[in-house]
Structure formats: C-alpha cells, structure tokens
Amino acid sequence: MQAATRLFWERGYEATSIGDLTAAMGIRPGSLYAAFGDKKTLFKEAVHAYGRAPAGAFVADALAQEPTAKAAFGRILREAALIYPDPGHPPGCLTISAATNVTLQDADVAQFLRDLRNTNLAAFETRLHAAKNEGELPSTADPAALAGYFATVIQGMSQRARDGATAAELTQTARISLSAWPAADD
C-alpha cells in the first residue's frame, strides 16, 4: 500500500497507471484487481492509509490534542510547514494535490478528495465555534470565515511545497498566518 500511496502522491490519480502501480507494488495486474477491484478503490484505500500516517494525520491530531483552538491551529500550521516539504516523501499533501486534473469519467475521485477536504473544513469550523463559545475568540469572530482562511493557507502551503518552498519559508508563512488570529473580547 505504501508504494501505491507514494505513487499517487507523486503523480496524482490521473497520471498513475495500472502498470505504474503494479510495477511499484511488485505485483501483476490480476493481483491488483483481485485485491482491490480497480484503480479507484486502490486509490481510496491509499488515501485512507495516508490519513492514518503522520503526514496525513497531523491536522486531526492537533485539533484533538491541543487545549485551545489557537494552539491547535498554530500546531497545524507549524507541522504543515515541516511535513509538506519533507524530502522523505513527495511534497505537499496527497488529499490536496492528487486530483488536480481529473477527467469527467473520474469526477467521483475528485469528489472523494473534495469531501475529505471539506470534512477538515467542517472540523476547523466546529473547533472555532467552540473557541468562540468559550471566549477564546471575540463575539464578533466568524468561525466559518476563519475556518476557510486557515484551510486556504494550508492548501496554499501544500502547493508551495510542491513548487519547492522550504520548511523555513513555510514556517514564516505559518507565523504570518497565525498573526491573523482575532483577539478575544476583554
């Protein structure tokens, strides 16, 4: 599964062929079809495996583990800055970049990834609503807008890593982005 995940991460869904996958996985096409049914099913399983690995799980981990929303978003941004350009794996985020050029016949693959990204967006918004209710954010804060802002920054950081941005550059982006955090009511 790791070889398939890496290949989809490097090339995206559309540009990864069955031949590429079977070569990388060291299996025959018949074995791939017997184990996974088709390329889409293998892709979805690879994405789920990615989501359980450190490079994919850091967002959910930060939201669940940090005591404040600001600490959670700070951690997410700092970890993205280190994880996305890490040379130990393809740059960026698999769920952000794997379906950028999908044909109409594979629109469900793009929808699958969009749904995963929107699930993260909803988790951001939920955490920010809680922060507002607890007084961590001002009463005038817009949790939906803040969630969208942080999702946009994180997606942009993923693309910048794919374009060659370093951890130092992305850390600076994280620092600047977090400065947009609204001050709590007095």
TrEMBL record:
Residues 17-36 bind DNA. The keyword Transcription regulation applies. Residues 1-54 form the HTH tetR-type domain. Keywords: DNA-binding, Transcription, Transcription regulation. It comes from the Bacteria. One of its GO terms (molecular function) is DNA binding. Coiled coil: none annotated. InterPro entries: Homeodomain-like_sf, HTH_TetR, Tet_transcr_reg_TetR-rel_C_sf, TetR_C. SUPFAM superfamilies: Homeodomain-like, Tetracyclin repressor-like, C-terminal domain. Gene3D superfamilies: Homeodomain-like (1.10.10.60), Tetracycline Repressor, domain 2 (1.10.357.10). This is TetR/AcrR family transcriptional regulator.
